[in-house]
């Protein structure tokens, strides 16, 4: 796969990624090269990565796995580790992991010593097509997603598709949801290709999803306008993800699983408010329910989830702002939604 070059950083694949990493580190002569992993990537990905990058000298910094650990407390542990290991402003941090590692690692790097360089090496499909690209870094505040962070670009993103072989199908499907989102907001032809995929085909479409996301980010790096389109499904999806993360009796949802629900719900809102046809709404619902287990919601669940919407990062001046679809492949931003439609959307999902 050809590299993706933008004004902020380069995205390399496979053998080109290996060569680019070695060349970049040789040219820049960092004082220290640190590696951040979580428990899973320490176990499953560190060995393969050590064959890609053989000059690693520092022991990896290991954090606990899972969204529940994407917190300021974990950041403090990593900041302490960097300090204790002699990190300075000429150090660099390599983030080897999924979205939690690249989000948190990017934030840690952006704030340690007022900012050191970092490179993202995503190991999950979700991180490859979404989390590691675009410069969004940060952590959660309690169960509220990504409330603290900065937009700061990595020096490079390095994609090694072989890491996907370490993942179970549920994790692959989580990333697939973000790929489907790219089709919904930007490219109907891509959506049509994706709905025909089986698990073995994901690798062949990673670059296309990155190109779509990268094209949006290039137009609007700090999310003042068009970049908001990447949040389709995330306003309700993040609220659902947060609620299931917090509730002791609920099975924790992966990011893509929650966003898949969010896209059905926000698809319904799109049909009601921005002109998307009923035929396309039914198509969206069918595709997601064919790929993701249906989740049960009580009325109490729905009320709490709706209340969580007030914490969404796109909100301004007391308004909850949604990204909705005019049709598959075309999204619009900053849509105000009447309160009564939220429960209608859940009713449509449940029926």
Automatic annotation (TrEMBL):
Q: Does the UniProt entry include the keyword ATP-binding?
A: no
Which coenzyme or cofactor does it need?
A: NAD(+); Co(2+)
* Gene3D superfamilies hit by this protein: 3.40.50.1970, Dehydroquinate synthase-like - alpha domain
Query: From what superkingdom does this record's organism come?
Result: Bacteria
Which keywords describe this protein according to UniProt? Answer: Cobalt, Lyase, Metal-binding, NAD, Nucleotide-binding, Zinc
User: Which stretches make up the 3-dehydroquinate synthase N-terminal domain?
Assistant: 61-173
Q: Which residues form the 3-dehydroquinate synthase C-terminal domain?
A: 175-315
State which Enzyme Commission number(s) the record gives.
Answer: 4.2.3.4
Which protein are we looking at?
3-dehydroquinate synthase
Q: Which SUPFAM superfamilies match?
A: Dehydroquinate synthase-like
Q: What is this protein's function?
A: Catalyzes the conversion of 3-deoxy-D-arabino-heptulosonate 7-phosphate (DAHP) to dehydroquinate (DHQ).
A molecular function GO annotation: 3-dehydroquinate synthase activity
């Amino acid at each position: 796969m050809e590299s993706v070059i933008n004004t902020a950083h380069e995205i390399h694949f496979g053998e080109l990624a290996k060569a680019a990493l070695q060349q970049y580190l040789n040219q820049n002569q960092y004082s220290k090269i640190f590696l951040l992993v979580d428990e899973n990537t320490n176990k499953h990905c560190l060995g393969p990565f050590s064959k890609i990058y053989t000059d690693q000298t520092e022991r990896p910094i290991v954090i606990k796995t899972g969204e529940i650990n994407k917190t300021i407390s974990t950041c403090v542990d990593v900041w302490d580790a960097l300090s204790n290991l002699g990190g300075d402003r000429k150090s660099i941090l390599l983030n080897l992991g999924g979205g939690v590692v690249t989000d948190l690692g990017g934030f840690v790097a952006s704030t340690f010593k007022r900012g050191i360089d970092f490179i993202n090496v995503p190991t999950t499909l979700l991180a490859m097509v979404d989390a590691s690209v675009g410069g969004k870094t940060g952590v959660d505040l309690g169960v509220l997603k990504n409330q603290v962070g900065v937009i700061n670009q990595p020096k490079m993103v390095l994609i090694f598709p072989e890491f996907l072989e370490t993942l179970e199908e549920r994790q692959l499907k989580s990333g697939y949801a973000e790929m489907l989102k790219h089709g919904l907001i930007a490219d109907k032809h891509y959506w049509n290709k994706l709905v025909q995929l089986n698990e073995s085909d994901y690798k062949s479409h990673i670059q296309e999803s990155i190109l779509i996301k990268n094209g949006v980010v290039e137009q609007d790096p700090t999310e003042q306008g068009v970049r908001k389109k990447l949040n389709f499904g995330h306003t309700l999806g993040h609220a659902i993800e947060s609620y299931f993360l917090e509730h002791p009796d609920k099975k924790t949802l992966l990011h893509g699983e929650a966003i898949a629900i969010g896209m059905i719900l926000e698809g319904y809102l799109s049909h009601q408010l921005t002109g998307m046809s009923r035929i396309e709404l039914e198509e969206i619902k069918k595709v997601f329910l064919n790929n993701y287990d249906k989740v049960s919601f009580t009325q109490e669940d729905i009320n709490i989830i709706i209340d969580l919407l007030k914490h969404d990062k796109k909100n301004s001046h007391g308004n909850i702002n949604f990204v909705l679809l005019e049709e598959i492949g075309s999204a619009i931003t900053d849509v105000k939604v009447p309160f009564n439609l939220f429960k209608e959307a859940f009713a449509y999902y449940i029926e």
